[in-house]
Amino acid sequence: MPPAAVLLWAGLVAGSTVLVTSAPLLVSSLSVWSSGPPQGLATFIPFQRVFTKRGSMTVWRAPGRINLVGEHTDYNDGFVLPFALEVGCTAVVDTAPAGSDGWTVRSAQQPEPVVVRRSGLSSAPDVPEWSRYVLGALWLLTDRGVDVPALDIVVDSDVPTGAGLSSSAALVCSVARALDDHLDLGLDDDALFALTRDVENDAVGAPTGGMDQLVSLRGEAGHALFCDMRSHETRSVPLDLAAHGLTVLVTDTRAPHKHSDGEYGARRRGCEEAARLLGVPALRDVAAGDLDDALRRLDDDELRRYVRHVVTEDERVLSVVRLLDEGRLPEIGPALTASHVSMRDDFRITVPEVDTAVDALHEAGALGARMTGGGFGGCVIGLLPDESVGAAGDAVRAAFADAGFGEPSLFTAAPAPGARAVSPGTRGN
Ligand code: ADP
Ligand code: MG
């Protein structure tokens, strides 16, 4: 369901619901995003005046994602199989009012707007980190020779941050698509992907592998997106949960992400070191049939475990894709569970909260369950028969209470479309 803000914008653009307000920006009254439902309508009423007067806004929405299988394979040039979610970020790009020569960025989830002069990345001012996810596209486009005019940009997201659902890609991709549309840049799929990946890598400094941006841009309803992270070629694969009477139940464990940055960096460096020792460009180049031989050639037990995880995880992605292509969705469960075991025992990126959730889901009848996302907390997915979902949720909550963990957040997820224009007034529909 589109957020209320989008419905409001749609009405505004169609000229039917123009509510001009002279109220000041009531940003301080916004409730804290992570503790309540998505903001939307109420949040955006203060902004109406800004956008309705000129009527030149461009509105795009891009989703968060769940990774069905394929963890820590992206930076090893391997395979991933994420799907886009219904939750997402909506970005509104508008030409700035006459007399304003800078870029103004607002987020419904942040108290203060950020206003900067126009520049490239190298001369970018010091700004709050969240705004770099938005301004990054403007800086990089400027660096690439685009004369980006003065703009007002507003974003509003219902993707929880830091839960492993990729609020950052939703934000970056919604802004990039809206900018491309608003400025008539005509960026193709590859250029949009490169821009959104570079925003996170270069403008924010987050070493993401690119999966999140690919699926946020290219996801398709009812499908997962099979991504080759070397060529960045993608292909939609059917994931019709409803047709099989199945549900993906997501548990956001809310476990604090302790040491996740350092541990992520260590895994990444370890994988690169192992590839170097094995004489291959990346661990993707170790064929499954050569795994035993590769393991024998490595002395370091930690590196051996990393290699075993990455090589077997790539195989699991390929096997799940094969099953989905053949319409055998109910049979993917064991591969999901094997992925979790590999992350727990070989890659060692799980924490007690996620292991507890996976165990509880299995006991409640899950066909398969695994942690999703980079690890050290975040979300767990369980593939369940529809009729088991209620009991499985209860089982996870009870297991968390027994273990003395904080209360998890549970919700269901189904594959939704990737980035899309959401207002009838925008170009590019
Ligand atoms: P994830 O992508 O898993 O949610 P990240 O750490 O990659 O976690 O990205 C989260 C960051 O993205 C937030 O800390 C914030 O800086 C930025 N962000 C995401 N959504 C918004 C938003 N709606 N408004 C402002 N910043 C946001
Ligand atoms: Mg992210």
What would you note in describing this structure?
- This protein is an alpha+beta fold.
- It is built from 13 helices and 12 strands.
- The strands form 2 sheets. Strands 1, 2, 3, 4, 5, 6, 7 and 12 form an 8-stranded mixed beta sheet that branches. Strands 9-10-8-11 form a 4-stranded antiparallel beta sheet.
- α4 (129-143) runs parallel beside α5.
- The structure holds adenosine-5'-diphosphate (ADP) and magnesium ion.
- Adenosine-5'-diphosphate binds at residues 89, 107, 109-110, 129-130, 133, 155, 157, 161-168, 171, 206.
Largest sheet: 8 strands, mixed
Assign a percent range to the helix content: 25-40%
Quaternary organisation of the protein chains: single chain
Q: Regions with pLDDT < 50 over 5+ consecutive residues?
A: 1-54, 424-429
Distance from N terminus to C terminus (CA atoms, Å) equals: 18 Å
Bound molecules: adenosine-5'-diphosphate, magnesium ion
In terms of DSSP E residues, the strand content is 15-25%
Question: What is the 3D form?
Answer: globular
Number of strands: 12
In brief:
The chain contains 13 helices and twelve strands.
Write the layout of secondary structure elements.
Layout: H1 4-13, H2 41-44, H3 48-52, E1 58-69, E2 79-95, E3 103-107, E4 114-116, H4 129-143, E5 151-157, H5 167-182, H6 189-204, H7 211-218, E6 223-228, E7 234-238, E8 246-252, H8 260-278, H9 291-296, H10 301-325, H11 333-346, H12 352-363, E9 368-372, E10 379-385, H13 389-403, E11 409-413, E12 420-421
Parallel strand pairs: 3-5
Antiparallel strand pairs: 1-2, 1-12, 2-5, 2-6, 3-4, 6-7, 8-10, 8-11, 9-10
Helix pairs in contact: 4-5, 4-6, 5-6, 5-7, 6-7, 8-10, 10-11, 12-13
The structure holds adenosine-5'-diphosphate and magnesium ion.
Magnesium ion binds at residues 166, 168-169, 212.
